[in-house]
């Protein structure tokens, strides 16, 4: 797959585990995939974490368009030549005793990209999916992509709720059902790119090079989408 054609958009979703693992391997995996958009879950946190994320972005040929503060457990990185508008972070409601989560979003070359990292508890996931659907997926400002770590298998309530909103599991559209977690011996498919029908799915893959098995506790998902003709 090669998404450098201006008529396509390559979206990669990747849980970076706070850059606590093999950062060189992470950089190599991302650089090999050559995404236009990198939807990040578990970016490094705090002021030093924001600096580390910017450095990581620079090493992969990307720039941070959303990171830190309200984005919390998410971030959004984009290649310099893609136009970005309306970049923002949305803080999710806190569930006492659990990690406070956030959502990163921006309009990238006319596509509304929303990055999510859902929690481990089903009831929290349901509340956050409902909030994302109500606040971020009804703007009429272009085709939609939701990318991230759902912490849930296909067929679960979160997948169903996004599907009811018209979003398709891009990997399954092209017959890809490759698990992404855990990275060393993947068994579960919990990382996803969901796209609406205005974006044709050209291809999808889960990188399987050696570095992908050690860089993080997740493997990434890479999807190529055809942009609609203006």
From TrEMBL:
**UniProt entry keywords in alphabetical sequence:** Endonuclease, Hydrolase, Nuclease
InterPro entries xref list? Endo/exonu/phosph_ase_sf, Endo/exonuclease/phosphatase
What top-level branch of life does the organism fall under?
Bacteria
Report domain Endonuclease/exonuclease/phosphatase positions. 12-218
Gene3D superfamilies linked to this entry: Endonuclease/exonuclease/phosphatase (3.60.10.10)
Q: Which GO terms describe its molecular function?
A: endonuclease activity
SUPFAM superfamilies with a match to the protein in the record: DNase I-like
Q: Which Pfam families match?
A: Exo_endo_phos
**Name of the protein in question:** Endonuclease/exonuclease/phosphatase family protein
In its UniProt entry, the species of origin is given as Cellulomonas wangleii
């Amino acid at each position: 797959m090669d998404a450098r054609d201006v008529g396509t958009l390559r979206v990669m979703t990747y849980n970076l585990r706070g850059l606590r693992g093999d950062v060189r391997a992470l950089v190599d995996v991302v650089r090999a995939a050559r995404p236009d958009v990198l939807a990040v879950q578990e970016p490094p946190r705090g002021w030093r974490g924001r600096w580390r994320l910017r450095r990581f972005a620079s090493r992969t040929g990307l720039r941070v368009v959303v990171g830190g503060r309200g984005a919390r457990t998410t971030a959004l990185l984009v290649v310099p030549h893609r136009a970005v508008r309306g970049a923002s972070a949305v803080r999710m409601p806190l569930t006492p005793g659990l990690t406070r989560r956030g959502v990163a979003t921006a309009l990238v070359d006319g596509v509304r990209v929303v990055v999510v990292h859902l929690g481990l508890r089903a009831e929290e996931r349901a509340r956050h999916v409902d909030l994302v659907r109500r606040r971020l997926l009804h703007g009429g400002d272009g085709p939609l992509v939701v990318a991230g770590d759902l912490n849930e298998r296909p067929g679960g309530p979160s997948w169903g709720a996004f599907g009811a909103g018209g979003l398709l599991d891009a990997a399954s559209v092209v017959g890809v059902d490759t698990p992404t977690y855990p990275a060393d011996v993947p068994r579960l498919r919990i990382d996803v790119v969901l796209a609406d029908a205005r974006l044709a799915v050209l291809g999808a893959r889960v990188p399987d090079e050696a570095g992908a098995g050690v860089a993080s506790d997740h493997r990434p998902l890479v999807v190529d989408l055809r942009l609609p003709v203006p």
